[in-house]
Amino acid sequence: MLQKTMRWYGPQDGVSLQDIAQAGCTGVVTALHHIPVGEIWTDQEIKKRKHEVEAAGMVWQVVESLPVHEDIKRRNGNFQRWIDNYKISLQNLGENGIQVVTYNFMPVLDWLRTDLHYPTKTGTALRFEWDAFRAFDLFILKRPGVEKDYTTEQTEAAKAYFEKLSEENKARLASSCMQGLPGSKEAFSRENILALLKEFEGIDEKTLQSHLFQFLNEISPALEKSGVKMAIHPDDPPFPVLGLPRIMSHADHIRALLENTTSQHVGLCFCTGSFGARKENDLPKMFKEFGSRIYFLHLRSTARDQGGNFFEADHLAGDANLYTIIKLATELQHVENRSIPMRPDHGHQLQIDAAIDSFPGYSFVGRMKGLAEICGMEHAVYQERAEKGL
Ligand code: DNO
Ligand code: MN
């Protein structure tokens, strides 16, 4: 069976550990958000969090994220020091029995949406719309050199979109695109983003890729020694944005990762929602090809339209066929005799969720609904297997 978990943002999360346990989870996915990026996660701080989770009757299953310092992504500044610290954190995590670390290699921003409250029949969902995003880039961020990234047609469409927005909706768009990093309540400012983007000038896809591979190969001895597996989260959205390169958006990127790293401890967080936002990504095919290197599963579904816009659909709807993925995961677990940790990724915000101070995408009732649907699908897979005598 998949190991059922939910992300917990720590003591600052309005959703409690007891809530997560009552939803039927046996574990949580969490991080030490209070430790500045790059600094060591000490044994003491890890133990403190671990005991807190265990006191609620669960285990700390996966770290998400042990963030990678921007210096490592650029390979300048103090990158060597941050890599040395990273190795120590991995060692400390391994000694405490935490064996999967999720991270991402997206420069500057983590996941990006243009609407955090897109109304659906069952609450509100996160949405990404290109016109809105380009409008943000062109008329709110006013990124230097932005014009050359878009065709005249795209710029015209973004302009028309922007002109129709009320002042209030312009502010909503800005705050959605500039929300802070996961687990942080501090938003980005325009100046902030522009300064960070400038530091990545001249770093293209190939360069960023080679920085990722070098980083992973450098920490591999620490991974082997500690038993920890690194599960990279895909880019979200899986397209270049703000002129930044993307290196984990499709199957070719995964192939390159596996070809250029040496340790079996280097693997994937297979996020069906993020990969699924890209039409060419055939999720079942990718799952079959890379299954043995999938160390963590994020299950959610995105609904795309012709224009490449998408919103996060219900777990049973949208373009990702989660039933097929759960079926493949079940087969893989049997063949490899292991149990893969899984969390329902973002959920809808239902009306009742508004009363809980949770992070965007991390509502309680919405995610619990997703989890229940996933458990139902998994149950059906096992039922079918039993009927076939498997
Ligand atoms: C998106 C979510 C993100 C993710 C981080 C990983 O699909 O799962 O919050 O956790 O980007 O580092
Ligand atoms: Mn995800």
UniProtKB/TrEMBL annotation:
Protein EC: 4.2.1.8
Cofactor(s) required for function per UniProt: Fe(2+); Mn(2+)
Keywords, sorted A to Z: Iron, Lyase, Manganese
One Pfam family per UniProt: UxuA
Catalysed reaction, written as an equation: D-mannonate = 2-dehydro-3-deoxy-D-gluconate + H2O
InterPro entries (alphabetical): Man_deHydtase, Xyl_isomerase-like_sf
Pathway: Carbohydrate metabolism; pentose and glucuronate interconversion
Gene3D superfamilies according to UniProt: Divalent-metal-dependent TIM barrel enzymes
GO BP annotation list: D-glucuronate catabolic process
Keyword 4Fe-4S: no
NCBIfam families with a match to the protein in the record: PRK03906.1, uxuA
Described purpose of this protein according to its UniProt entry: Catalyzes the dehydration of D-mannonate.
Family in the record: Belongs to the mannonate dehydratase family.
Protein name: Mannonate dehydratase
Organism: Arachidicoccus ginsenosidivorans
Taxonomic placement: Bacteria, Pseudomonadati, Bacteroidota, Chitinophagia, Chitinophagales
